Amino acid sequence: MDSVKKVYDFLENAGNFYLATTEGDQPRVRVYGAMLYFEDRIYIMAFNQTNATKQIAVNPKAEICTFKGQTLRISCKLIKDDRQVVKDAMMAKMPVLKPITGENGENAVMYYLSDATATFFKLMEPVETINF
């Protein structure tokens, strides 16, 4: 199995994940659930004009963490992708978002994970690391 797809499948199976960004010297963490595997990349979706999108614009470094029988932690950069095809793919996957994001996803911001290190942990011990 493709290693990026393995990371995505774990995130998808977990359902929700926590995204950590920074605001100045203060970490900020929030729960997310909108994710997409597209063109061999993992994408997450945020809403326009939120604190998260403002923080990512200043510092694209982020961490993602989730748990489903084991822990997955991803250190990465979030790269904005404004292409309509990406938004369309997200809306096709999660049509429930359309009332919030707009019919064409105009209120959504799509980011893909870049320079990522994904580490799976069991009982605090790393068991596998995937770089992508």
How would you describe this protein?
The structure is a single chain. The longest helix has 12 residues, at 3-14. Strands 1, 2, 3, 4, 5, 6, 7 and 8 form an 8-stranded antiparallel beta sheet that branches. The chain has one domain (3-131): Electron Transport, Fmn-binding Protein, Chain A (Pnp Oxidase, Chain A). The protein has 132 residues and is of the alpha+beta class. The protein contains 4 helices and 8 strands, in the order H-E-E-E-E-H-E-E-H-H-E-E. The mean pLDDT is 96.
CATH topology: Pnp Oxidase, Chain A
Instruction: Evaluate the radius of gyration.
Output: 14 Å
The number of helical elements comes to 4
Name the structural class.
alpha+beta
Shape: globular
The helix/strand order is: HEEEEHEEHHEE
Mean pLDDT: 96
- Uncertain runs are none
CATH architecture: Roll
Question: What's the CATH H-level superfamily name?
Answer: Electron Transport, Fmn-binding Protein, Chain A
CATH class: Mainly Beta
Percent range for helical residues? 25-40%
Question: In percent, how much strand structure appears in the residues?
Answer: over 45%
The N- and C-terminal alpha carbons lie at a distance of: 14 Å
